[in-house]
Amino acid sequence: MAKALVRLPVGIAGPEGPARLECEGRTVGDALAACVAGQPRLRTRIFREDGSVWVGIFVNGHNIRQGGGLDTPLRDGDEIRLLPPIAGG
Length: 89
Prior knowledge:
Helix content: 10-25%
Number of helices: 3
Mean pLDDT: 93
Low-confidence stretches: none
Number of domains: 1
CATH superfamily: Beta-grasp domain
Order of helices and strands: EHEHHEEE
Radius of gyration: 12 Å
Shape: globular
Number of strands: 5
């Protein structure tokens, strides 16, 4: 199981939340599940009600949507960045 650093911007963590968490998992999905287990309030800030991903997820600067998605494998020391959706007009 790999240990990854998950970076959380204020838009996801909230002003009182942690800016980073260390989570373990074989995949991005496993690591995020571990993070949510430790910080349950993050569930609705990362996932929609149907379980699909609400935020942008990048591993070492690469968008997981262009790779294996939540099944993207992790290695020790990987950095997962979560970015809230941005909309405007």
